[in-house]
Design a protein that fits this description.
mainly alpha
Length: 96
């Protein structure tokens, strides 16, 4: 009888631990899908960061192209001014 009472005491002592373990198991079961969603969000965030990096590189290229176009436009304007001064020296102003 004493052995049975001792076993009951041990069972009663571990009952709250077993209950907590079951609650923890239920929590882990609920967290599983959330962790899967989080994993997908992290993959999407990485893809967005990579896209942003490619956009930044493209923007630098566009900026460089714009600078080249601006320099070419300056050269063209300067050449047009030279041509205008040259045609002004032609009798009749270079007009037909």
């Amino acid at each position: 009888m004493a052995t049975l009472a001792a076993a009951r005491g041990v069972f009663d002592a571990f009952a709250p631990i077993v209950d907590r373990a079951q609650q923890l198991g239920a929590l882990i079961d609920r967290l599983g899908p959330a962790l899967d969603d989080l994993s997908e969000l992290l993959v999407a965030a990485r893809q967005i960061a990579e896209s942003a990096e490619r956009i930044a590189v493209s923007a630098q290229g566009i900026d460089g192209s714009a600078a080249i176009i601006a320099r070419d436009a300056e050269v063209l304007a300067r050449d047009a001014g030279r041509l205008a001064r040259f045609t002004d020296r032609i009798p009749g102003g270079g007009k037909r």
